[in-house]
Amino acid sequence: MGKKIEKIVAMKGVVTQCLSNGMFRIKLENGFNVLAHLSGKIRQNYVRVLLGDQVIVELSPYDLTRGRIISRLR
Question: pTM of the prediction?
Fold first, then answer.
């Protein structure tokens, strides 16, 4: 049994709602809405993510309604 490599999808989106506990509602380029949390690197470096910010979100192929914010675009 070997490890299988998961294909992770990364997409651009805009923060439409800031929720509690570091959760955000993101509208992706293709029109879908996802619920995303901050990645560990973003939290460690104290990167602020605010309403209206453009971000890059990683989506799991298993659940396309949830994701992880991996970067904030300038």
Answer: 0.87
The predicted pLDDT at position 1 comes to 60
Sign, CA dihedral 45-72-49-30, equals negative
Q: Is residue 3 part of a domain?
A: no
**Identity (one letter) of the amino acid at 38?**
L
Phi, psi dihedrals of residue 40, rounded to the nearest 5°? -60, -40
Q: What is the mean pLDDT of each run of 10 residues along the chain (74 residues)?
A: 77 97 96 96 95 96 94 93
Q: What distance lies between CA 26 and its chain's CA centroid?
A: 7
Q: Is residue 52 part of a domain?
A: yes
Coil vs helix vs strand at 44:
helix
Domain hosting residue 24, numbered range: 9-72
The DSSP 8-state label assigned to residue 52 in this structure reads T
